[in-house]
Amino acid sequence: MPMTITEKILADHAGKREVRPGELVDCRLDLLMANDITAPIAIREFEKVGAKEMFDPERITFVLSHFVPARTSPRVRPTRRIRSRSSPGRSWRREAS
To answer: How many CB atoms within 10 Å of residue 19?
Structure first.
């Protein structure tokens, strides 16, 4: 059975001839995106494992769309965390052990 366009893209980015549904693949990513709901969770988890900076800040984007403008104080905290991490020179990467 021929691959779908998504499978073709994943195969190409994984350096494989083909991929199949259900297969786990390790891919080279063009762009990573997190929003104001997912980014604070991801940042916290990366910090838990000792990450210090992003692997490539040029390929990561944060989209503040759910809580901006923040109408309540609890909604301000996640956007502050994202903004502090997305400033030039502020990023994370896990140190090799």
So the answer is: 21
